Amino acid sequence: MVFWKASCPVRDQHVFITGGSKGIGLAVAEEVLRRGARVTIAARNRDDLSKARASLAAACPASRGKIHTVAADTTSVDQLHAAAQSAEGALGPVDVVICNAGLSLPGLFSDSSLENFQRQADVNYLGTVKTIKAFLPGMLERRQGHICIISSALAICGFAGYSSYAPTKWALRGLADCLRNELAGTGVGMSIGYPPDTQTPGFASENELKPKLCLAANAALGSEVFPAEKAGRVACSIVQGIERRAYHISSPDFGQTLLMDSMTSLSPKVLPLALSVLLAPVTNIVLSLLRWRMDRAVVKARQGGAS
């Protein structure tokens, strides 16, 4: 849902996207190309990058000379700095960094290995920290730029099956809140997005690992799952948020946007203030009902022998 017009279009800007070879990252790359940006996509697999480049070139024929790909693992400081040099050497200084690379390994706390906790923390949280570290000094020196962290709906609503994943996404919210305030007056902006469930290759792999309790809680929440063909809609909401220089990027799932707005703390509201105040009583009632439904669903699943 759009409440403000774009104030900083991405047209003619260089956008760098981690995890850009598939899913939402690839959809975001296509969206910024359609809007006239130059784009670098980074991912670990070179074959995936080649396929992504061909896909982007076919979808955006006018983008010739505006697409660059670079193989990089966001857990490696050296690879990220090399990726930054490669991107800026090919398409000029990076104006917008979108930290999209992530990993989800669902499982109940009692069943999840410490290695799974460590791996997701390394990719989701520290990988984002390392990506920002690679680009922020140049942005501060130029006194312009924008950083967008792609978090998750699990950063605002944790439930069974995500004890090793959700905390890494909550950590991203804490990081973004601190940087938003720290970067005020520098010319460098911050955004954080919480994409809803979208049918992507990563989401399909995630579903294979979900325990029954996770599925029960998820179903009780009744959140919308966006089919693959609507990944562009999710990507559009992210790019629109960046162009508006919104801090919290509203979701195409309005129920999720209401939840985001209820958890902004000292950061800017998601909805216009008057609307936020008007909806607050209803939002609190709805959230209480959803919490009851979610807990009840898990209890019933356990009574049925689910784990």
From TrEMBL:
<comment type="pathway">
    <text>Sphingolipid metabolism.</text>
</comment>
<keyword id="KW-0746">Sphingolipid metabolism</keyword>
<keyword id="KW-0256">Endoplasmic reticulum</keyword>
<feature type="domain" description="Ketoreductase">
    <location>
        <begin position="13"/>
        <end position="197"/>
    </location>
</feature>
<feature type="transmembrane region" description="Helical">
    <location>
        <begin position="270"/>
        <end position="290"/>
    </location>
</feature>
<protein>
    <recommendedName>
        <fullName>3-dehydrosphinganine reductase</fullName>
        <ecNumber>1.1.1.102</ecNumber>
    </recommendedName>
</protein>
<keyword id="KW-0443">Lipid metabolism</keyword>
<dbReference type="GO" id="GO:0047560">
    <property type="term" value="F:3-dehydrosphinganine reductase activity"/>
</dbReference>
<dbReference type="InterPro" id="IPR036291">
    <property type="entry name" value="NAD(P)-bd_dom_sf"/>
</dbReference>
<comment type="pathway">
    <text>Lipid metabolism; sphingolipid metabolism.</text>
</comment>
<keyword id="KW-0812">Transmembrane</keyword>
<dbReference type="InterPro" id="IPR002347">
    <property type="entry name" value="SDR_fam"/>
</dbReference>
<dbReference type="InterPro" id="IPR045022">
    <property type="entry name" value="KDSR-like"/>
</dbReference>
<dbReference type="InterPro" id="IPR057326">
    <property type="entry name" value="KR_dom"/>
</dbReference>
<keyword id="KW-0560">Oxidoreductase</keyword>
<dbReference type="GO" id="GO:0006666">
    <property type="term" value="P:3-keto-sphinganine metabolic process"/>
</dbReference>
<keyword id="KW-1133">Transmembrane helix</keyword>
<dbReference type="GO" id="GO:0005789">
    <property type="term" value="C:endoplasmic reticulum membrane"/>
</dbReference>
<dbReference type="GO" id="GO:0030148">
    <property type="term" value="P:sphingolipid biosynthetic process"/>
</dbReference>
<dbReference type="Pfam" id="PF00106">
    <property type="entry name" value="adh_short"/>
</dbReference>
<keyword id="KW-0521">NADP</keyword>
<keyword id="KW-0472">Membrane</keyword>
